Amino acid sequence: MRLRLQRRRTLTLDGIFVSDILIGEKLLRLIVLLIVLFMIACSTRNAIVSYAIVRGDAVNVRSDSNLASKRIRIVKKGELLTLIKRSDHKDSIEGFSNYWYKYKNEAGEEGWVYGSFLTLYQNIHPNAGLFINKFKSTVSNLFPLVKKSSNKYTRYGGNYNDYEITISVEDGILILNELEKYDLREQKVTSVYILKDDRLFQIYRGLYPSFNYIESNCFITINSSGVQTYDMDKILNENFTSLPGAPFEQISELKTENYFFEYETSTGYILQKSKINKLIEKKYKLTNCKLSNLAQ
Question: Residue 142 above 80 pLDDT?
Fold first, then answer.
């Protein structure tokens, strides 16, 4: 004789089974929970806790993440800001394309600053000492360094002509200019380093002198041969150390002919100037690290 177990289902006065009501309540609670989690994710999607150094001379702070909002104060070059939020989308202003960042300082003041006038640091309080300590431990551990000023060093027994370190915390880079000597010749070379994942990471090596700048994850270098741009999100060789160029994918290049190039840090434009009269012949804008000529 087989026993058949049956689950009892109790009818309500409305003709609805109690078990169906319980299932409906559980489903409703699950839906509410998913909605709450979605709202939390949306509200914290662009919330960040990081640090930034102001690299513009006098940068406007605004009440919201757009250029039309009220200007409430300024921050000056070298100020340390604690970032707490990032705008949803990038904003194009003149030659720049970057996010807005909301900050809070030690006085409790808050406001929004455009990203192109900041150098971002992830979870570290940046200073020149931090850069040089990383350099000593990873690059120059075979010989001592001598401090020449607050942000300049040289090799012990050397001078600026053959070995010079310059640290720009505002631009987020350490630059090493050194004289490489061979049997029959010598050549000045520049190497550029940034702080990445708690270590000093070389991002460029080339002929000295050169102008080097980072704008929204695009590395820009201007030297006697022209201008090159590299996408820092596209690493090709992280172990790159001594070859000319950069470990990133090169996006654009302009060769020097009867003109030279300058980067305008206040607007983000790359200017092509005549070698004869120094007048601007063309303006170039960076879009996703690619140079595009603007109509004059």
Answer: no
- pLDDT tens for 79-134 read 999 999 999 999 999 999 999 999 998 888 999 999 999 999 987 888 899 999 99
φ, ψ at 287 (rounded to 5°):
-130, 115
SS (H, E, C) 207-253: ECCCEEEEECCEEEEEECCEEEEEEEEEECCCCCCCCCECCEEEEEE
Q: DSSP letter for 295, please.
A: P
* pLDDT score, position 18: 47
Residue 159 banded pLDDT, cuts 50, 70, 90? low
| Side-chain-side CA neighbours of residue 68 (13 Å) | 0
Mean pLDDT of the chain: 84
Residue 231 CA to residue 288 CA, distance in Å, equals: 8
* Distance spanning both ends of the chain, measured CA to CA: 97
Q: pTM here?
A: 0.79
- Distance between CA 56 and CA 287 in Å, rounded? 21
* Amino acid type, 279: L
Exposure string (b/e) for 244-280, b if CB count within 10 Å is 16 or more?
eebbbeebbebeeeebbbebebeebbbbbeeeeeeee
Look-up of token digits 């041969």: 225
Q: What does the domain layout of the chain look like in residue ranges?
A: 47-121, 128-294
CATH number for the domain running over 47-121:
2.30.30.40
- Which run of H or E residues covers position 95? none
